[in-house]
Model the fold of this input.
Amino acid sequence: MTKPALDVLVVGGGIAGPTFAFWLHKLLPTAHITILERSPAPRLSGQAVDIRAAAVPIVERMGLIDMVKKYATTEQGIDFIGIDGKVAGSFPKSGDMEAQSFTSEFEILRGDFAKILYESTKSLPNISYIFDETITSITQTQTEKVEVTFKNHHPTQTYDLVVGADGQSSLTRRLIFNKNPKNKQEHLRRLGQYSAYFTLPSILSDTPFAAWYNAPHGRLILLRPDQYGTRRCYLGVTDSNLSRFDEIDDIMHNKGVEEQKKWFAKEFEGAGWQSERMVKGMMESDDFYMQEIAQVKMERWSEGRVVLVGDAAYCPSPISGVGTGAALVGSYILAGELSLHPDNISLALAQYEKHTRPFVESVQHLIPGAPQVANPQTETGIKVFNTVAWVLSHPFVTKFGGAMKKFYGWVSPAFGGTKWEVPVYGEGK
Ligand SMILES: Cc1cc2nc3c(=O)[nH]c(=O)nc-3n(C[C@H](O)[C@H](O)[C@H](O)COP(=O)(O)OP(=O)(O)OC[C@H]3O[C@@H](n4cnc5c(N)ncnc54)[C@H](O)[C@@H]3O)c2cc1C
Ligand SMILES: *[C@@H]1O[C@H](CO)[C@@H](O)[C@H](O)[C@H]1NC(C)=O
Ligand SMILES: *[C@@H]1O[C@H](CO)[C@@H](O)[C@H](O)[C@H]1NC(C)=O
Ligand SMILES: *[C@@H]1O[C@H](CO)[C@@H](O)[C@H](O)[C@H]1NC(C)=O
Done:
């Protein structure tokens, strides 16, 4: 008996989409996979992302760990900068695979990682990419097929399975799971932070450490080194009063990059430290990207023959430090379960959810009060936060490694606390 050749459409060519395609091709080579990406080329912007704990063996099994090491950012740790512009606390890399600190041992720019994944899938037989295209409707037919219509040049097509890997504001999710497909906030747990990412030139005083600087009114500058001699900047605005974001939320969804930059420039007026450098760098940058910091929470990740993976289904938010890890774990398990049950898709989708949920639940657990606790509104709040950073980074405290291990485990279980085993599919079994 030959297994049926599955026809799969993957919406989104970021991290989850290509990873899923890689694994499905490896474990079920007869499957035909089309990856749809709305931008004209792979999107390569962003800061460093971490590959930690459970995700490491998956990247190893893909044969990509040496490549990830080759592209590793040069970050040696993180400094917390006080209001006076001086270093208030310094955290070097832990060098310990079991208990990684704020700077993970596998730090790679999101764009470099997305490129590695694209390069390692684009020429595989039975995988094809379509850029500059998106979906407009998804209809499940009685014959257990899914009919998809496209926005640009492609004619209506029928698939056995549609995988939504289209990120935090997933259109696939809105079309299938929303009460109102236009509502981008349905299924979001809003965390009260809006952020901007961009690249800017280095200056002489930059160090191999990342710099974290809080300014009053919930403003954060996080400046990180990369291996290209430039810096990756993250600007965050945090407020538990969500009305502060009405304007930027509207701009983000309905206006262009120039208006988005202007909002951040206005917010960072008079923020102190190197804020003027950041704003200038942002205005001149050509890779600006912004997003709302939020988690995606869903009761189910599949409906019939449409399934979500990565940020689309369970974005843990960048402040969890494991957005990429969750996308890797979920895509791997989805591909693995489909390869075990190619003739019973609903069983495969149920098994994917059963195995992935406990992991997702552990990584979606954030430090109590995050992100507000790390982004105080007042100068006094910032001083308290900096004092905590100073105490924790004191040699006397770091010497008792166990205490730090506990602290990192408390910040996020993904930093080494959880002992969650990744299932093994295929030849490794
Ligand atoms: C440009 C960019 C920069 C980022 N920078 C950072 C960062 O610095 N730090 C961090 O922690 N996280 C960052 N993220 C988020 C991070 O990539 C994800 O949390 C994580 O890697 C999960 O990946 P994903 O594939 O599920 O989602 P994403 O990486 O968001 O990928 C989704 C992909 O789907 C595409 N897409 C979206 N809608 C459609 C549609 N309707 N049709 C077709 N394609 C669509 C997008 O263009 C994108 O390529 C960034 C995401 C993007 C897109
Ligand atoms: C591609 O798919 C076809 C049919 O589904 C299959 O016969 C073929 O072996 C696949 N190619 C590779 C290289 O796996
Ligand atoms: C929340 O923010 C809005 C807009 O910035 C402001 O008008 C309102 O007074 C704030 N509410 C509280 C309770 O601070
Ligand atoms: C798929 O698996 C489920 C659960 O094991 C089973 O109840 C169902 O009959 C199976 N469907 C098919 C078409 O084999």
Observations:
- The two ends are 23 Å apart (CA to CA).
- Residues 7-67+108-185+295-363 form a domain with the FAD/NAD(P)-binding domain fold (CATH 3.50.50.60).
- The pocket of flavin-adenine dinucleotide (ligand 1) is lined by residues 11-17, 36-39, 43, 45-47, 49, 110, 134, 165-167, 171, 197, 289, 310-312, 315, 318, 323-324, 327 (CB under 6 Å).
